[in-house]
Design the sequence.
C-alpha cells in the first residue's frame, strides 16, 4: 500500500519535471506550454503502465516455470492483443486497396477498432456457416481411444496432444470442434432470436409512434409490465415452464427459448423504435405524406424505417450481444441449449472447475476460458462495430 | 480617426473546414480592422464565412475548422500564438460573444443571474454581490421588464427577445472591449427584433464597446453598424462606411443585394363579384386540446391570387393553415373548396380533395425525407395521384424539375442533403406542383433563406401562379415579402383576423393600430430609420412593449 502511494507521488513529481523539461527544451512550444498538469501526469502514467506490461511479458517468458505461470495469462493477452491489432491493420489495408470505390472509402475512414470488429465477426460468421468443413471431429463425437481432459497447447510434455491442439473435454470430445460448432449453435440461435425481437419490437414500436392514442398506451404499458420483471429471472421462470411443455407438445426446447428471449428483448427494441419513430413522425415530410393520403404501410416502411435504420442497426448489434449472453447464461444454468449440442455457455459450465488450477497449471485452466474467450471476443467485436456505426450515423446528422 | 492602434487587426486570414478527408477553404485571405468603440457589420449569404470570420476574431475556431494562414491581433496580442492561459483570460473578460439562439445558449438548469455573474467572478473582475448589482443595472439599461427580479428566473421563464437581451447583458458583464454578435435577432419577430436592436445599439454606444455584428439582413446592419463589410464565398467583396455603402455600392454583388427588395408584381384586376373562391375559410374556431387558438377566422382565397397572412409567431397563422389542410379539425366553422364543404379531418377527405390542397413548408430540411432521392420525392405524388408509372412518370418528374429550374439529369438521383437551401425549397415546390393542385399553402417558405435566394423562390412562385393560375396562401411575418408577392393581406393577432383587404389598401394609412405597429417595425435600409422611429415613438412605445399596451 505504502509502495503504491509512493509510486503515485513519484509519478506526480516526474510529471512535473517532464512538463518543465519539455517547456525548457522546446523553448515554450505551445504543445508543452498549454499542457495541463493532468495531461502530463497521464503521459507519465501511461509510460509506466506500458513499461510494467513489457516487464511482465518478459517475466512470462522466463525459464522458471513458477514465475512464467504467474504471468501466463497476461502474456497470452498481450500476444493476442498484438496479433489482433496487426491482423486488423492488415485487414484494413486490404479493404483500402481492393473492393468498390464505396467500400474503399469506408475503409479509409475506419478506425482500427472497427476493422478488428468486422474482421472478427467475419471469421465467426465463416466458421459458423461452414462449421462441418472446419471442424475436425463432430460436436458430440467421443473419439475412441483418446484420453479425456487433454490439455490445450499440443505440447506432449505438458500433457497435450498435437492431434487435439485445443485439447479434449472431460468425456474426451475435441474442444476445437465443439468451439466451432458452438459458434453455429450459439451465434446462429442468438442471431435468429435478435432478428425476431427486432421484428416484434420494431413493428409494434413504429405502430405505437405513428398511430399514438390508445394503441400506444396499451402497448407501452404492457411493455412496462414486462420490463419491470428482471429479465434473466423471468426467462429462467418461463424456460422452466417450457421445459415441461416442450416434451408434451413435441416442440424442441430451443424454439421456446428463442421465442421467450425474443419477446423479453423485444420490449427494449419497442422502446427504442417508439422513441426514434416519435422523433421522425413529427417531421414535416411525414405530415406531407399523411396529407397526401398515404396509408400506414407506406408511412412506416417508406418514410419512417429508412430514417431509423442507423439507431436500429446500432441497437441490433448491442441487443445481439445481450441475447447472446442471455443464451450463454441460460445454457450455463442448464435450461438453454441442451447437450449434446455444443454451446459456449455449457462448455464454460462443464469445464469451469479447471479454473481452480490457474495458479500452478495455467494450461489446464485454459480449457473453460477458451469458450469464455470466444464469447468475450465476439461481444467486444460487435460493440466496436456498433460504436463506429453510431459515430458515423451521428456524424451524418451534423 | 486618430493614430490609436486598432483593437482588432486581422491580416490575410485563411480558414479551412474539413469535410470527409479534405480541407476546403472557407475564408481565403480577408483583412479586418476594428477601432475601439466601432461597430462593424459583416454581411453575406449563408456559407459566406461570416460566423467563421467572427469567431476567428476571437482566436477561436469551431471543431473541424482550422486557421491555415494569417494573423489575428487583439489589442496588440497575437491571438493565434498566445498561450491558453492568456486566451482564457481574454475571452469572456475582454472579448464576448452573443450567439444567434439565446435559448440554446443558456444553461436551462441555472437562473439567469447565476449565469450572468459567472464571468466576472471567474475572471476576478468583480465579487458576486457587486456583479449581481451590476447585472440588475444592465438589465435596466437594456429595458428588460422587472430588472430587479428577472435575474432570478430560469431561461424558459422569459421570452426569446428578453433572453437575447439577457445574453447581451451577460456579454457586457465584464465590460469587454469587443463583442461579437452572431445574428442576434434573426430568430425573432419584427416587433421583438426592434426592441433588441434598440437596446443593443444603446448599450454598445454607452460603454463605447467595439462590436462585430454578423447578419444577413441588410436593413438591420444599416441600423447597427458604422462600417459594413460584405463577404461572398469567403472573399471580401467590399468594405465601406455604412452610408457610402448604402448609397453608392461599387461592386456588382453588393448592388444585386441592394436591389433584391425591388421585386414587386403588377397589380391584378379585382376579383369579379360572385366568383366562387377556391378556398373559403368560414367562421373557423380552433383549439389545441382545451386551449382555444382561433376565434371566428374568415377569409376567401381566389383562383390565381395570393393571400398573405401576416402576424407574429403565436398569432394563429400556421394554425389556420392546419385547419385548412385538415390536420387540426376546427371546433366551429368550416372550410369550403370550390364552394363545397371539405370534411374537417384530412383522413375523411377524398384523394382528389387532398390533391387540390398542397403545402410548402418553412424548413425544407425537415420537409424532405433525407433518405429519398429527389426523383423519388417528386415521383411519389405523380404516381399516387395521377397513377403514372415507368417512363411516363419519369417524363413528368423531368418536366417538373425543369419547371423549378433544376437540370433533371443532374438532380434526379441526388439526396436532399446534397442540395443547397434554396434548391431544397424548390424541390418542396415541385412536390406540391406534382399533385397538380389548385391551392398551395406556403408556410414561411422564404424565411430560412438568404435574400437573393428568397427572391428567386418568390419569382418562381409568381411565374408558376401566372402559368397555372394557382391560388396561394402565403404565411409570413416578413412584410417585404408581402409587398413583393401578395394581392390581398390578412393581418392576424392572438387568433383573430384584425384587418384584411387589398394589398395597396393595407400599405396605405390609416391602419389598424396593430397593423401600423407591424409595418413600422420592419427595418428599412435607411441608416437613420431606427433613430427616427425612436425619436418619433419613444423607447417605450416600440415592439412588444407597445403590443402589450394594446
Sequence:
Amino acid at each position: 500500500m505504502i509502495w503504491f502511494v509512493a509510486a503515485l507521488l513519484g509519478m506526480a513529481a516526474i510529471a512535473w519535471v517532464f512538463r518543465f523539461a519539455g517547456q525548457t527544451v522546446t523553448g515554450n512550444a505551445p504543445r508543452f506550454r498549454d499542457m495541463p498538469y493532468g495531461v502530463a501526469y497521464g503521459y507519465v502514467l501511461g509510460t509506466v503502465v506500458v513499461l510494467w506490461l513489457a516487464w511482465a511479458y518478459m517475466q512470462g517468458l522466463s525459464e522458471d516455470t513458477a514465475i512464467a505461470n504467474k504471468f501466463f495469462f497476461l502474456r497470452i493477452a498481450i500476444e493476442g492483443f498484438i496479433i489482433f491489432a496487426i491482423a486488423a491493420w492488415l485487414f484494413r489495408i486490404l479493404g483500402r486497396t481492393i473492393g468498390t470505390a464505396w467500400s474503399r472509402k469506408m475503409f479509409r475512414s475506419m478506425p482500427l477498432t472497427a476493422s478488428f470488429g468486422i474482421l472478427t465477426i467475419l471469421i465467426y460468421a465463416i466458421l459458423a456457416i461452414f462449421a462441418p468443413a472446419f471442424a475436425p471431429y463432430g460436436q458430440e463425437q467421443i473419439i475412441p481411444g483418446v484420453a479425456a481432459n487433454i490439455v490445450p497447447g499440443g505440447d506432449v510434455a505438458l500433457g497435450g496432444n498435437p492431434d487435439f491442439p485445443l485439447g479434449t473435454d472431460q468425456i474426451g470430445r475435441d474442444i476445437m470442434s465443439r468451439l466451432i460448432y458452438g459458434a453455429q449453435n450459439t451465434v446462429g440461435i442468438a442471431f435468429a432470436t435478435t432478428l425476431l425481437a427486432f421484428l416484434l419490437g420494431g413493428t409494434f414500436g413504429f405502430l405505437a409512434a405513428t398511430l399514438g392514442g390508445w394503441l400506444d398506451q396499451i402497448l407501452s404499458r404492457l411493455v412496462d409490465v414486462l420490463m419491470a420483471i428482471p429479465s434473466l429471472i423471468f426467462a429462467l421462470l418461463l424456460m422452466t415452464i417450457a421445459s415441461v411443455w416442450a416434451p408434451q407438445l413435441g416442440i424442441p426446447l430451443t424454439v421456446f427459448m428463442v421465442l421467450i428471449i425474443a419477446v423479453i428483448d423485444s420490449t427494449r427494441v419497442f422502446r427504442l423504435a417508439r422513441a426514434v419513430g416519435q422523433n421522425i413522425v413529427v417531421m414535416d415530410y411525414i405530415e406531407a405524406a399523411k396529407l397526401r393520403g398515404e396509408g400506414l404501410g407506406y408511412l412506416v416502411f417508406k418514410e419512417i424505417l429508412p430514417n431509423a435504420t442507423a439507431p436500429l442497426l446500432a441497437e441490433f448489434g448491442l441487443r445481439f450481444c445481450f441475447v447472446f449472453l442471455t443464451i450463454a447464461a441460460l445454457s450455463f444454468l442448464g435450461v438453454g441449449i441442451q447437450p449434446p449440442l455444443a454451446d459456449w455457455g455449457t462448455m464454460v459450465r462443464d469445464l469451469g472447475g479447471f479454473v481452480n488450477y490457474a495458479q500452478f497449471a495455467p494450461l489446464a485452466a485454459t480449457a473453460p476460458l477458451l469458450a469464455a474467450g470466444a464469447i468475450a471476443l465476439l461481444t467486444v467485436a460487435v460493440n466496436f462495430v456498433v460504436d463506429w456505426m453510431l459515430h458515423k450515423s451521428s456524424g451524418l446528422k451534423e | 480617426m486618430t493614430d490609436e492602434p486598432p483593437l482588432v487587426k486581422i491580416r490575410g486570414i485563411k480558414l479551412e473546414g474539413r469535410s470527409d478527408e479534405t480541407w476546403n477553404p472557407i475564408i481565403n485571405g480577408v483583412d479586418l480592422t476594428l477601432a475601439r468603440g466601432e461597430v462593424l457589420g459583416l454581411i453575406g449569404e449563408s456559407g459566406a464565412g461570416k460566423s467563421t470570420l467572427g469567431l476567428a476574431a476571437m482566436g477561436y475556431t469551431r471543431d473541424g475548422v482550422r486557421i491555415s494562414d494569417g494573423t489575428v491581433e487583439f489589442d496588440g496580442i497575437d491571438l493565434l500564438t498566445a498561450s491558453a492561459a492568456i486566451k482564457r483570460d481574454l475571452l469572456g473578460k475582454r472579448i464576448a460573444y452573443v450567439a444567434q439562439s439565446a435559448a440554446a445558449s443558456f444553461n436551462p438548469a441555472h437562473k439567469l443571474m447565476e449565469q450572468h455573474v459567472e464571468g466576472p467572478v471567474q475572471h476576478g473582475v468583480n465579487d458576486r454581490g457587486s456583479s449581481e448589482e451590476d447585472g440588475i443595472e444592465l438589465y435596466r439599461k437594456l429595458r428588460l421588464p422587472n430588472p430587479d427580479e428577472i435575474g432570478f428566473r430560469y431561461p424558459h421563464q422569459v421570452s426569446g427577445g428578453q433572453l437575447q437581451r439577457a445574453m447581451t447583458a451577460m456579454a457586457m458583464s465584464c465590460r469587454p472591449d469587443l463583442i461579437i454578435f452572431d445574428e442576434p435577432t434573426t430568430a425573432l419577430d419584427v416587433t421583438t427584433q426592434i426592441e433588441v436592436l434598440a437596446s443593443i445599439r444603446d448599450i454598445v454606444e454607452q460603454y463605447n464597446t467595439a462590436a462585430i455584428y454578423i447578419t444577413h439582413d441588410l436593413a438591420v446592419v444599416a441600423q447597427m453598424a458604422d462600417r459594413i463589410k460584405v463577404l461572398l464565398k469567403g472573399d471580401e467583396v467590399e468594405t465601406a462606411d455604412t452610408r457610402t455603402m448604402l448609397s453608392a455600392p461599387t461592386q456588382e454583388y453588393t448592388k444585386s443585394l441592394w436591389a433584391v427588395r425591388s421585386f414587386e408584381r403588377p397589380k391584378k384586376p379585382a376579383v369579379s363579384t360572385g366568383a366562387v373562391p377556391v378556398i373559403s375559410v368560414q367562421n373557423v374556431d380552433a383549439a389545441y386540446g382545451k386551449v382555444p387558438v382561433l376565434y371566428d377566422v374568415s377569409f376567401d382565397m381566389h383562383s390565381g391570387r395570393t393571400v398573405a397572412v401576416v402576424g407574429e409567431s403565436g398569432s394563429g397563422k400556421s394554425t389556420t393553415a392546419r385547419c385548412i389542410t385538415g390536420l387540426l379539425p376546427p371546433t366551429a366553422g368550416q372550410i369550403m373548396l370550390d364552394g363545397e364543404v371539405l370534411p374537417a379531418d384530412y383522413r375523411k377527405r377524398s384523394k382528389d380533395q387532398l390533391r387540390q390542397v398542397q403545402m410548402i413548408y418553412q424548413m425544407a430540411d425537415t420537409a424532405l425525407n433525407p433518405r429519398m432521392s429527389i426523383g423519388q420525392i417528386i415521383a411519389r405524388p405523380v404516381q399516387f395521384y395521377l397513377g403514372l408509372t415507368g417512363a411516363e412518370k419519369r417524363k413528368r418528374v423531368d418536366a417538373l424539375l425543369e419547371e423549378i429550374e433544376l437540370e433533371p439529369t443532374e438532380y434526379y438521383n441526388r439526396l436532399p442533403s446534397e442540395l443547397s437551401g434554396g434548391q431544397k425549397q424548390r424541390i418542396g415546390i415541385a412536390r406540391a406542383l406534382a399533385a397538380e393542385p389548385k391551392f398551395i399553402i406556403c408556410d414561411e417558405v422564404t424565411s430560412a433563406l438568404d435574400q437573393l435566394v428568397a427572391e428567386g423562390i418568390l419569382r418562381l412562385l409568381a411565374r408558376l401562379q401566372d402559368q397555372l393560375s394557382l391560388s396561394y396562401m402565403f404565411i409570413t411575418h416578413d412584410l417585404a415579402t408581402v409587398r413583393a408577392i401578395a394581392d390581398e393581406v390578412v393581418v392576424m393577432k392572438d387568433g383573430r383576423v384584425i384587418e384584411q383587404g387589398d394589398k395597396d389598401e393595407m400599405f396605405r394609412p390609416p391602419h389598424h393600430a396593430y397593423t401600423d405597429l407591424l409595418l413600422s417595425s420592419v427595418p428599412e435600409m435607411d441608416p437613420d430609420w431606427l433613430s427616427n422611429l425612436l425619436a418619433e415613438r419613444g423607447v417605450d412605445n416600440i415592439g412588444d412593449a407597445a403590443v402589450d399596451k394594446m
About this structure: Chain A has a mean pLDDT of 86. The interface with chain B takes residues 30, 33-34, 108-109, 283-285, 287-288, 290-294, 302-303, 306-307 of chain A (CB under 8 Å). The CA atoms of residues 138 and 218 of chain A lie 49 Å apart.
